Amino acid sequence: MNTSAVAQATASVHAFTQEARDAIYHAIFSRRDVRGQFLPTPVPDEVLSRILTAAHHAPSVGFMQPWNFLVVRSQGTKHRVHDAFAKAHAEAAGMFEGDKRAVYQKLKLEGIIESPIGICITCDRERTGPVVVGRTHMKTMDLYSSVCAVQNLWLAARAEGLGVGWVSIFHQADLQEALGIPKGITPIAYLCVGYVSHFYDKPELETAGWLPRLPMEDLVYFEQWGQRDDQQPLIAHLRRDQAAAQRGREAIA
Ligand SMILES: Cc1cc2c(cc1C)N(C[C@H](O)[C@H](O)[C@H](O)COP(=O)(O)O)c1[nH]c(=O)[nH]c(=O)c1N2
């Protein structure tokens, strides 16, 4: 066997079954940021427990596990968070010019009150002391670790049929105050979570004409920053896979 045949055989031993792989990619391609389709249906604790456990199994720099998960269910807390959102949202509209401002004002960018559960995922930057394996030089790695937890939760939630919407239109201090988060802890994501009437087939910002999905071939460089190479066989695969992902979502729709 030549080297690449060995590599292929080794890889396939550890690959999931086709059905399991399809399920993973289905979760990835059909995950959406949900703002407006939340149902009041309660989320059972056993389901909430599964998605939180998935989040806790995210990778983290130096195995730091810098996250906490603050679960919000009361209307009082939700209203405090929504007040913080409303203030920042009003300011945000003024930051966009012309047509963009009008479009921005029409966008629904949160489901804080309607979603049965809010989850704030945080980062404790001091959790394991000042020197962390893998964060010795690039200090933001702990923040990225908490983002990995967000993504794990988001994908697990999709598999459970739950919608998740990330809300980040806050003054950080206002969100911290609304949730009683101490100064040393960084809020990473406020997530609206709940069952939904439907999932859209593509990002709402794409549908609204805000931005299109970028072509993969523009984003992949070879060896040096900025170096594209359309002759690389990988590029043809990327085009095919992007088209397939697109068709997949049409099938889903
Ligand atoms: C860090 C971060 C922060 C935010 C978001 C995402 C991420 C990663 N997104 C969701 C975002 O708009 C959405 O992911 C993209 O538009 C792509 O759509 P899908 O997630 O594929 O549906 C988001 N959406 C929203 O309505 N209000 C918000 O404040 C935010 N904030």
From TrEMBL:
UniProt keyword Flavoprotein, yes or no: yes
Identification of the protein by name: 5,6-dimethylbenzimidazole synthase
GO function terms (MF aspect): 5,6-dimethylbenzimidazole synthase activity; nucleotide binding
Domain Nitroreductase intervals: 29-195
Keywords: Flavoprotein, FMN, NAD, NADP, Nucleotide-binding, Oxidoreductase
Enzyme Commission number(s) from the entry: 1.13.11.79
Catalytic reactions on record: FMNH2 + O2 = dialurate + 5,6-dimethylbenzimidazole + D-erythrose 4-phosphate + H(+)
A GO biological-process term: cobalamin biosynthetic process
Pfam families on file: Nitroreductase (PF00881)
InterPro entries the record matches: BluB, Nitroreductase, Nitroreductase-like, Nitroreductase/BluB
Similarity remark: Belongs to the BluB family.
Assembly and binders: Homooctamer.
